[in-house]
Design a protein that fits this description.
mainly alpha; two-stranded parallel ribbon; 6 helices; 4 strands; 42% helix
Amino acid sequence: MSYYMRVKPDIETLDKQTKANNCMSGNQQTTVTKNVDPRELAKLQLYQVIAAIPAGQVASYGQLAKLAGQAGAARWVGYCLRHLPKDSSLPWHRVISANGKLAFNLDSEGYWRQRELLQAEGIILHHHKVSMRRYQWQP
């Protein structure tokens, strides 16, 4: 099984989805059954966590996986970020490796874009790395 297929939805989130579906007609007694793809639900949880990273702070792929209920799925986080729509408003640039390296190769346009966005938020890079001790998000 590939790394991005190991995701399991958080039971609490599934329960919230069910409660939201129960109220669709305005009648609290009406239950609407809706098929929820666990992979899509897991991605939505991840996107909520990424959206919560404050400006001027960063998070690692592994940290985000754990916070989204997918401990050990750092590569899955990278997969989800790679497949974001181009017009996404998620702060993708705040996600870096656990050792502080940016997501892209040094000579790529993506690297310079990520670096520019981080520096605009006051994050200083030293030898092409971000100090996780100084800038890591602690939710």
